[in-house]
# Entry
Amino acid sequence: MQEKFYSERLLELYDVCHAEMPEAQTTEFIGDVEQDTFVAATFIASYLTLKAVQHLGRSPSDERIDNFDMLSVYQAFATLVFVILTLPLKSEDIEPDVVQAAAVIGRALFDELSDEACVECIESGLRKVQLLGKAEQDYLVQFREDMDKAVIAFVIAGTDENAPFTTADLIPVFGALLNILCETFSRDD
# Structure
């Protein structure tokens, strides 16, 4: 059996995730690997973030009023998932635009926000991703490593029928990781 390209795995994982959210808008793939993997990765990143938020019992609609900055934490989480999901695409000479992805993800996560508020969440989320990437604190280094492992495990769970776990088994892991991020950016300095 021939090994799948990573891009094929992402498209397959998109189908798995989309099947669990049939109410989500379906995007038809156009046969352009770079564009199709971008669509798949932005959807998967949004999907995982929404599932993690739900798992934690958090309410973005309430936080929009009471704790607006928390929305940018969700944006940062989704953008980080996107970055990790798409890193292996470099071996296929595909390098999706992270800023463009953040905009697509932001619109998906916060479609009820005004354009100005959504832009604020996206920009703040991107700044948080940059801070996380540069952070040297042990717990944040560990967080990045755990995110890498969780995203890789999710791809395997969704695309390998012999995986020892399912995508649903990993949602609590993403919930725990999102919780760490929420606590990190909720701390008073």
User: Anything to note?
Assistant: The two ends are 54 Å apart (CA to CA).
